[in-house]
Write a structure and sequence with these properties.
Layout lengths: L26 H9 L1 H10 L4 E2 H7 L5 H13 L3 E6 L5 E6 L1 H19 L1 H14 L3
Antiparallel strand pairs: 1-3, 2-3
Protein name: Helix-turn-helix domain-containing protein
Keywords: DNA-binding, Transcription, Transcription regulation
Length: 135
């Protein structure tokens, strides 16, 4: 007997309770938070340990204060980042990954490292594409 192998997220596969390929699936929002430019870099930066807001902002070059704040709020709401406010003067706020956040960061960093290791090939492909005048 042959079994049909379905792609991950196939709407006809009842094996998973969530399906990111379905428009209404709540996992889509989290996927966007994790894989968006600032989310992926924030998770990667926090994988090294707890950081204060400005330390994190310096580590994630190019992110504005507003975007980092929005990103951290989204990741905290999704249970990937823990925010710890210290009752000091001035207030001290530290951010760190939760266990779920560490797992997400590990996977995101794997993709980041793959892309970094493959950049010579990517740059050659871009050069070839541009030389063909393809659009």
């Amino acid at each position: 007997m042959t079994t049909t192998r379905r792609y991950p997220g196939d709407p006809e596969d009842p094996g998973l309770p969530y399906n990111a390929f379905a428009k209404e699936c709540p996992s889509r929002g989290t996927l966007e938070h994790v894989t968006g430019r600032w989310g992926a870099l924030t998770l990667g930066a926090l994988s090294g340990g707890s950081l204060r807001f400005n330390e994190l902002r310096r580590r994630v070059g190019g992110v504005s204060e507003k975007m980092l704040s929005q990103t951290l709020h989204a990741l905290e709401r999704d249970g990937l980042v823990h925010r710890e406010a210290q009752p000091t003067n001035p207030p001290r706020v530290d951010y760190e990954l939760t266990p779920l956040g560490h797992e997400a960061a590990r996977r995101v960093l794997s993709l980041i490292h793959f892309l970094e290791d493959s950049m010579d090939d990517v740059l050659l492909a871009r050069e070839s594409y541009d030389a063909r005048g393809a659009r």
